[in-house]
Amino acid sequence: MEVKKVAVIGGGTMGNGIAHVFAMNSIPVNLIETKQEFADRALSTIEKNLNRMVKKEKITDGEKVSTLDSIEVFLDVEEGVKDVDLVIEAVPENYDIKKSVFEKIDKAAPGHAILASNTSSISITKLAAITSRPEKCIGMHFFNPVPVMKLVEVVRGLETDDETYEATEAAAKLLAKVPVPVNDSPGFVSNRVLMPMINEAIFCVGEGVATPEHVDEVMKLGMAHPMGPLRLADFIGLDVCLDILKVLYDGFKDPKYRPAPLLVQMVDAGKLGNKTGEGFYSYD
Ligand code: 3HC
User: Fold this and answer.
1) What is the pLDDT, as a whole number, of residue 108?
2) Cα 167 to ligand 1 centre (Å)
3) Can you name the CATH fold of 190-274?
């Protein structure tokens, strides 16, 4: 099955990036949001990121215009998914919200359509079980910033069939991404490895071992990471990091995944990183 048209549900950081890369690779996108103002914000972020690419001479002005023209906004999930081959859900990392989206898309999307989730840690098998087509459900886990990061973790649920995997892998390749197959397991591979590192960095700050700046300097200069773990945690969102750690902790029942108390406190205080202007660092 060839993916010729996609629907992206949610225009937040990940959703607008996913819409951006499909549209830029000539695959029409139905971008679904709950309110016009959220859709407008997503489109203006995409335009800003396309302008940056024009400025760096990675795409032409004409390609920018045709990318924006390939994105159509919908405020109704059922309407937005009814003529697509692939639906990618990118709504907040909360099982109940995703459950209601999967119920709707299963009813409204064509029978042949693949239902994918960009979840960073929720079980694909559990999301698939909500639907009448578990064999067509899969994880398509992109990385932020989506236009830049090459990886797509393609997560197979217990019942995902080979045809669905192959079509999803081919769609990722169309975007010039590198799909990596992973089986369904808490945090998949990416967040199972990344989040304990971020959590440990937060323990270091909480225990007074070093300042956020110094922890980040150690990892940037000593391990050649492009961003230190605390700057990266701010970039991902401290609430998202905490949610993922809770999924790991609940999934494995292993204390090594317990969230650092400082992380919990910062989330309670509403210091979520870049998106709220304050986390381990301050942002304008
Ligand atoms: N859209 C398009 N292009 C973008 C962009 C965007 N949103 N953001 C950055 N770029 C481009 C820039 O134009 C620049 O292009 P160039 O190489 O041609 O000059 C390039 O990316 C680098 O950007 P900058 O020069 O502005 O800044 P940096 O060199 O500091 O790089 C970064 C920024 C790419 C974000 C880099 O710091 C990085 O790779 N950080 C790590 C990001 C990471 O680990 N992401 C994964 C997070 S985990 C995740 O998403 C999964 C989830 O489940 C938690």
Assistant:
1) 98
2) 27
3) N-(1-d-carboxylethyl)-l-norvaline Dehydrogenase; domain 2 (1.10.1040)
